[in-house]
Amino acid sequence: MSLTLIPVTESFSVSTQITASDIPTLVGAGVKSLICNRPDGEANDQPTITEIRSAAEAAGIALAYVPIVSGKFSATDVEDFSSAISKMEAPVHAFCRTGTRSITLWSLHQRKQGVNDAELLRIAKDCGYDLSDALGGALASEPKLAGGGAAKKDHYDIVIVGAGAAGISVASSLMARTQALSIAIIDPAEVHYYQPGWTMVGGGIFRQEDTVKTMASLIPEGVRWIKSAVGNFEPEKNRVLLEDSHPVHYDRLIVAPGIKLDWHGVDGLVETLGRNGVTSNYRYDLAPYTWELVSSLQKGKALFTQPPMPIKCAGAPQKALYLSGDHWRRAGVLNNIDISFFNAGPVLFGVKEYVPALMEYIDRYKATLNFGHRLTRIDGDAKTAWFETQDESGATVEVSSDFDMIHVCPPQTAPDFVRQSPLADDAGWIDVDQNTLQHKRYTNVWSLGDVMNAPNAKTAAAARMQAPIVANNLLHDMNRVAGVAHYNGYGSCPLTVEKGKIVLAEFGYGGKLLPSFPKWLLNGQRPTRLAWILKEQILPPIYWKGMLKGKEWMVNPERSKADA
């Protein structure tokens, strides 16, 4: 998708997120300076500020980093923006996820310079932004500039935050049960990713382009798509504030914005991602680089890392190891490559029944296991990584390893706007009852997917099971269906131990095995060709054409008979 610059004045423009490949477009437009108003890690396809800065400075463009958590503007933020823009050579271009934060900051800066609110509203509206809520107070008396007449109150029976696997699936599950409700889904992303496919991209099996579709093609018919970012939750007022401070009111709320990848959680990582042999299948644009490294490596040292839990798809770090090792074995170079797995946790896999089969492949690929080792910093130019661990006496020490390639799984947290909200528990995750997925304090709020705190594996398969449960229980709360559905913690992790075979781990709360198939057909504790066919050929269409469309194949939630 080509970058569109929105001119605000002759010397200032805004846009959505840019990438390093957009720098020539900016140079061609005469831009001399850039301001980034988006914090790193808001989305899985988002390039880091370091990548953009490197490309910009190479092209002679200065860059200032003034990150704003969506919807949260402070006086300090405005001062920082004012300071940055006053020192920069014009024309200046600012960007964030949608451009809203950038034009809001510019407007607040202009207000300080004496520009009246009515004029700022008009300029923003001409650029396609309504800042009547963001600028607040004084603009309430300017209804004509905000669109004419009294402001219409956005109110829906159900509001869903997030249009990832969990958000779209629960929207479709609701629509499959009733079309009598007004439903809105809030998400600014233009595209939707099939993230389970990125491991296969990194293994040279899937094409990168087959893991992405336009968001517009996936939003369920009858559901309003609010293409904006959420700034804050106000559950006491039954409303969500968008990044421009516009309120969206609800009777019931579903929170499913996914997880944040904290690339800055490892010192030096953002400076070297995508080069120097440093890669990650956890980002759409980097997965092909994983395969480039694997397919070209003939000898040397390959490291694979896993951070402390919780993380999205806990098996993904070792899946990268297995597929890489299998390629090197088939290419006849495995004996020339030293493979090491550095895991911050104490075990290879959290459900013991699957460990024997996995250990057979660890031995096959001659991989060294290093448990209790957390990646803390990396120097890509020196090709060295450092890990925090404990010595024999229990003292914390740092050890290092050189590498020729390293696959990094970044630390992960709940999104910033979730962690700072009243909906979060002490660790920052949405606080739900693990059986009903209803919020523990706000009874008209539910959550599913990676962002909530139930102790289940954070996988797409888990969201597939959770979506109809949340849909059922929300409608039960409205007296529209009978019986409360209960989530048993189901999650699935197809561990790609070699090309053509998978150990299909399926389990629930407490590590209880929850196989979908009889053992005679598919023994999940052993590597099988059938599980590979399921992963490679069957699960992608189930995702696109089933799960996201409200067709709840292989899902049969338990319901409380007492409530039926």
Automatic annotation (TrEMBL):
Molecular function GO terms recorded: transferase activity
NCBIfam families, per database record: TIGR01244 family sulfur transferase
The name this protein goes by in its record: TIGR01244 family sulfur transferase
Keywords per UniProt: Transferase
InterPro entries in the record: BLH_phosphatase-like, FAD/NAD-bd_sf, FAD/NAD-binding_dom, Prot-tyrosine_phosphatase-like, Sulphide_quinone_reductase
UniProt domain Beta-lactamase hydrolase-like protein phosphatase-like: residue ranges: 8-110
Domain spans labelled FAD/NAD(P)-binding: 156-271
Pfam family membership, one: Pyr_redox_2
Top-level taxon of origin: Bacteria
